[in-house]
Design goal:
The complex is a heterodimer of chains A (401) and B (379). Chain A has 401 residues and is of the alpha+beta class. Helices cover 64% and strands 10% of the residues of chain A. Chain A has 13 helices and eight strands. With 379 residues, chain B is of the alpha+beta class. Chain B has twelve helices and nine strands. In chain B, the strands form three sheets. Chain B has a five-stranded mixed β-sheet, with helices on both faces. A two-stranded antiparallel ribbon of chain B has the order 1-2. In chain B, strands 6-7 form a two-stranded antiparallel ribbon. Chain B starts with a helix and ends in a 6-residue tail after the last strand. The chains are: A alpha+beta (401), B alpha+beta (379). Chains A and B meet through helix 6, helix 8 and helix 13 of A and helix 6, helix 7, helix 8 and helix 10 of B.
Chain lengths: 401, 379
């Protein structure tokens, strides 16, 4: 099981690398990758085509002379793609490639493939699926602006072939002497041919679709965490806290159960920054973030960075007395914490303001907690002041601890 | 259009997603039922069909439609309730997947555009649903396809069981077979291309948002500390190579703590935002980089600026802030800033920031609301 887990981790890391690579759009590298893949695909098609001429009866499936011509065209395209690969290797990987260089790779490959499809018939072969494969692949490597010319041309070619077909100016599948599928049993050769082409198209296509879906889901999740959390401490940010506060206030007003807000402010944080430098200050904040996270309940409480050196806890189902216990535990842990810089150690303390929410009015509770915090600071710091945020007397004397 | 689609992807609840899948597939099921019914009724077309298979297919389509609609009616009242996805999403995935797989198999897995439609259905499913039901449905459908394939190779079943040799007359495809093949191919590939383009565009957009967000400060929209450090590093490297001038302003709002304590955080945030606006407006747009380093500390990187130019910029900035009235709701405040100014002159990143810090500290000591240049005597 652990083997499987590590395998899947490895796999996702690979996907991440590829995805990041593709998303960065390093053009020189992408042109090379595209030319490589197209070269390989063309080589397979060439092999398949060539095998048909191996026996006279199979060679007769193609109209006279067309088999050789199509073989030559495929070989030419493949050589062109290989030339692009060699040329791509000589470019520095991060450099932006001139737009027409991308077109030189895209247009011949895609238009050539469409011509191959029309020659064998688009309606009864899996070639359209292969063409779609290449479409997905090219779009993954390049922007829409870059691929649109090649695909516009290919679509125009398909449309033109349909018009010629409808007017009778061109036979269906001009390369072939008879249709691939005529309603009855397929010839053995065609039966093999369509299956090979189908597998060649379907497996990469569904793989890409799954990867794409996973990539989108992961990006969304990343974006969501980025929007909701504070980068330094990993706690919720102020915006997320306000959202949670709103939500919990409704719940509190309905259920009538106690709820508390706890405001923390690091004492003399400015001096920590000035004396030990900003990186040390950041380290202190990150440590406090860890402490808050460790002392709150997952999924129930919200711990957030309120701004600067101020933190806040939202504790549903918690009265003012229990909130004091929680806050005291955190404050005590922080007092024991030693930070060291330049070979010297120092400690920090924090002042705490606590308020219990009454009647779901969280904003009043926040104001009261702020006032309590101010009083704690006034009274000499490293202490806490708590009260219940009653509506009638906001100025009621608070209980200092 | 794009907004609506993003709404579907971002805001739809699991139940709403199931309903969206049902709503988008049922019309097609009904269309196929109708078209197949017409084909069975027409004596001309019936020549090219295996009537028994087509009737079986019709029965399957009716069954799938009924199951889908039943699930739809069950979920309809709970459409916008944010409850976790239950097995109905798996059931719908399987249902739709099986119907389209059966269509593809009956029309010839490898020789008809129905396989493109099948891939299109996969793409839509992957956009709407979680990975788990989609993987299960995918495995089941591919299994079905392979099973039929094995039966064909062992001569237990015929290839394209819905069609007979009658679709070709005198070596030419009949008109209806040609029309059907064209419809399926072009509608299938057009739909698939659109879906894929959307999926890729969405991925690009997400990537862009992610990069932008991780480089900007949430409150003010200025560059954040990370971006500031990266740009400063790059500018210092460039400066070392080209020898151009490079100056740095370190800015700190005076007595900001008091504003927060006296007027609340809301007012403090408003002041920071306004400060950021002033910063943004008073520098040369693409060349200079204003950033918020954290708290009430800001910085501006001034590439290709001589010391006297930078001094002018800093003085102008200080004056603008000092004369500006900051308003938030009913509070009107005045705020001043202290600025530490330093010229790069071949310093490395750490030394440069430290000098700027020292200069800023001096500005604070000297009574705030002033610009102090880093002197070269001390480090």
């Amino acid at each position: 099981m652990s083997c499987l887990a590590s395998l899947s981790r490895w796999w996702w890391r690979r996907i991440d690398t590829v995805e990041a690579h593709v998303a960065e759009r390093h053009h020189a590298a992408n042109v090379r990758v595209f030319a490589w893949a197209m070269g390989a695909l063309l080589a397979l098609l060439l092999l398949l085509q060539w095998a048909a001429g191996w026996r006279d009866d199979l060679g007769a499936l193609y109209r006279p002379g067309r088999w050789q011509a199509s073989l030559g065209a495929l070989a030419g395209l493949m050589v062109w793609m290989m030339a692009m690969v060699i040329w791509g290797r000589r470019l520095r990987p991060q450099r932006r490639v001139h737009p027409w260089a991308i077109q030189l790779a895209l247009v011949p490959a895609i238009v050539g493939l469409m011509a191959y499809g029309i020659g064998h018939g688009l309606h009864d072969t899996p070639v359209p699926m292969i063409i779609l494969d290449v479409f997905v692949f090219s779009r993954a490597l390049f922007t829409w602006r870059e691929v649109r010319w090649a695909w516009g041309l290919a679509a125009a070619l398909a449309l033109a072939s349909e018009v010629l077909l409808a007017t009778g100016a061109m036979p269906y599948a001009p390369l072939l002497s008879e249709p691939v599928y005529d309603g009855g049993e397929m010839l053995t050769w065609w039966a093999v041919w369509v299956r090979v082409l189908f597998v060649l198209a379907a497996i990469p296509l569904s793989l890409v679709l799954f990867c794409l879906a996973v990539a989108v889901q992961r990006r969304r999740a990343e974006l969501e965490t980025l929007v909701r959390t504070d980068a330094l401490t990993g706690l919720a940010n102020r915006r997320e806290f306000m959202t949670q506060l709103e939500r919990e206030s409704h719940r509190q007003a309905r259920s009538g159960r106690p709820m508390s807000v706890v405001l923390f402010d690091v004492d003399h944080f400015k001096q920590v920054n000035d004396r030990w430098g900003h990186p040390m200050g950041d380290q202190v904040l990150a440590r406090i973030g860890q402490l808050l996270k460790a002392h709150t309940r997952d999924q129930v409480d919200t711990a957030a960075r309120y701004g600067g050196e101020e933190f806040v806890l939202l504790l549903p189902d918690t009265g003012v007395n229990e909130a004091c216990l929680v806050a005291e535990k955190i404050a005590a842990r922080l007092r024991q914490e030693r930070f060291s810089a330049d070979g010297q150690g120092f400690g920090v303390t924090q002042s705490v303001g606590i308020a219990q929410v009454v009647e779901g009015d969280v904003h009043r509770a926040l104001r009261v907690a702020d006032r309590n915090l101010y009083q704690a600071k006034q009274a000499g710091r490293d202490r806490m002041v708590a009260s219940v945020a009653f509506p009638e007397d906001v100025n009621r004397p608070a209980l200092a601890v | 259009m794009r907004r609506h689609l993003d709404r579907i992807f971002d805001e739809f609840t699991p139940n709403a997603r199931v309903l969206a899948a049902i709503g988008s597939s049922t019309p097609f099921f009904l269309l196929y039922l109708g078209v197949h019914g017409y084909a069975l009724a027409s004596a001309d077309i019936r020549q090219g069909l295996h009537v028994g298979t087509v009737i079986g297919l019709q029965a399957l389509l009716v069954l799938c439609t009924v199951i889908n609609l039943a699930i739809g009616f069950r979920l309809w009242p709970r459409c916008w309730q944010d409850e976790p996805a239950d097995d109905s999403s798996l059931l719908v995935c399987l249902n739709i997947g099986l119907a389209f797989t059966a269509l593809a198999v009956c029309a010839g897995t490898f020789t008809a555009g129905t396989n493109l439609i099948l891939v299109g259905v996969l793409a839509i499913g992957l956009m709407l649903f979680e990975l788990r039901p989609m993987v299960i449905a995918y495995v089941v459908c591919v299994g079905l396809l392979l099973l039929h394939e094995a039966a064909v190779l062992l001569h237990g079943a015929s290839y394209a069981p819905a069609l007979s040799a009658g679709v070709f007359v005198d070596g030419r495809a009949t008109w209806w077979f040609t029309a059907w093949r064209q419809y399926v191919l072009y509608v299938g590939s057009a739909a698939l291309v659109c879906l894929l383009l959307m999926l890729f565009a969405r991925l690009d957009r997400l990537h862009e948002n992610l990069t932008r967000l991780s480089y900007t400060d949430g409150l003010t929209g200025l560059a954040n500390r990370r971006r500031f450090m990266e740009v400063l590093e790059a500018e210092l490297t460039r400066q070392a190579r080209s020898g151009n001038d490079l100056c740095l302003l370190l800015i700190d709002a005076d007595h900001f703590k008091d504003i927060n304590d006296r007027h609340g955080h809301h007012a403090g945030d408003a002041v920071l935002r306004e400060l950021a606006n002033i910063l943004m407006a008073s520098v040369r747009a693409p060349a200079d980089l204003p950033a918020r380093l954290g708290g009430e500390e800001f910085a501006v990187i001034l590439p290709d600026s001589r010391l006297d130019e930078a001094r002018r910029v800093a003085e102008r900035l200080r004056e603008q802030v000092a004369t500006h009235v900051f308003e938030d709701r009913d509070t009107r405040l005045r705020v001043t800033i202290s600025i530490g100014l330093v010229e790069a002159r071949g310093l490395n990143l750490g030394a440069l920031l430290q000098r700027a810090d020292v200069a800023l500290y001096e500005a604070k000591q000297a009574g705030r609301n002033r610009v102090v240049e880093a002197s070269w005597g001390q480090a």
